[in-house]
Amino acid sequence: MVRFKNRYITVEIESPMVPDKKPLSLKSSIFHDTLLNKVQQIHGDFGVAAVKSGFLTKYCNENTRIAIIRSRHGPHKFVTSSIPFITKIGKLDVRLNTLHVGATLKNSFQFIQKHQRAYLDSMWSKLKTDEERKNLEAAVMDFTKTDVKINIENIS
Q1: CB atoms < 10 A from the CB of 7, how many?
Q2: How far is CA 153 from CA 61, 148, 150, in A?
Q3: Residue 128 maps to which CATH number?
Q4: Which tens digits make up the pLDDT trace of 102-119?
Q5: What's the CA gap between 154 and 156, in Å, rounded?
């Protein structure tokens, strides 16, 4: 039995069109397709064939603008080299920053927790009521924003 190693790439999505307080209207399926198209454009058919097996968008949070992509170890270099060249996702003008590349999903979520805690600390000073702060914390620390339908389609 062969064990496949995966890499989890944590990406930050910056959009100058949307203010920091508003969430992005971004679906993980659109993000997934855009990334595959960019790999096709830069690395060709070989890059797409190498990346496509085991390639999933595991997590996409519109509030903190963070996404996690799973790719196999080895072809993950095609993905990480294509990320900086993405300038549009759907109709949004964006800039993508690679924050972290980890070997486990748990390690990536620990990194995101630290990153989002820092984000919360900076945003709390701008909010006035405790209710707004609780709503923001619930939205930021929600790790269930995964588009299951696109992931099930890609597994089979």
Answers
A1: 21
A2: 20, 9, 5
A3: 3.30.70.3250
A4: 999 888 888 988 887 787
A5: 6
Residue carrying structure tokens 């595959």: 36
Q: Which domain holds residue 37?
A: 6-151
Distance CA 98, CA 44 (A): 22
Q: What angle do CA 36, 83, 155 make, to 5 degrees?
A: 35
Q: How many domains are there within the chain?
A: 1
Distance from C-alpha of 141 to C-alpha of 135, rounded to nearest angstrom: 10
Can you give the pLDDT at residue 27? 83
76 contacts 68 by C-beta, under 8 angstroms: no
What DSSP element (H or E) covers 7?
strand 6-14
Specify the pLDDT at position 130.
78
Task: Please answer whether residues 46 and 126 qualify as being in contact, where contact means their C-beta atoms are separated by less than 8 angstroms.
Answer: no
Quote the pLDDT of residue 19: 82
DSSP 63: T
Q: In 28-82, where do the E strands start and end?
A: 56-61, 66-72
